[in-house]
Amino acid sequence: MNWLKKLPLFKVVYRQGGIDSFALAQKDILETMADDLDEKAEELAKQKLNDLLSSIDLHKIVTLNKQAGIVYIGGERAEEGRLSNLKSEAEFIANSELWQLLMETPKSLAERAMFISGEGLDDMKKGRSILYTLSAQKNVVDVLKSYIPRKPLADKNDAVV
Fold first, then answer.
1. pLDDT tens for residues 14-70?
2. In this structure, are residues 148 and 70 in contact, taking their beta carbons and an 8 Å threshold?
3. Four-CA torsion 53, 59, 62, 67, nearest 10 degrees
4. Is residue 95 situated within a structural domain?
């Protein structure tokens, strides 16, 4: 086989094959790098989208069973002590100047978007979305403010005065 390597024609073909192989290897490497970059770009795009659409903490959602008068937080019935604390906080917040500012400023922006500077249906939807959010926040505060603590049940052995 060594005698074959000494032939001039073989040297040219061997060298050309090596160059072609290098070009093919380089092409494969560049394609792999492009695929890696595409994957990284896709991961980055997903991360940025997740940052924009912040995830919801399901343990912080307040719901009310109106028929039974039970408040749930995170899908679990809220404890009396927690509800009493939240009631105090809700009353404090609802009577604060900050609450008034947080409610009135977006209302003004919504009104402006819907009726003053609005140019179409999209602006009306944007304003209604703002008003809906404010309404949902107010409802949570109102539910917590209206909580009435239960009186502890008397023990059978306790004397009733």
1. 555 555 565 666 677 777 777 777 777 778 777 777 777 667 777 888 999 989 889
2. no
3. 130
4. yes
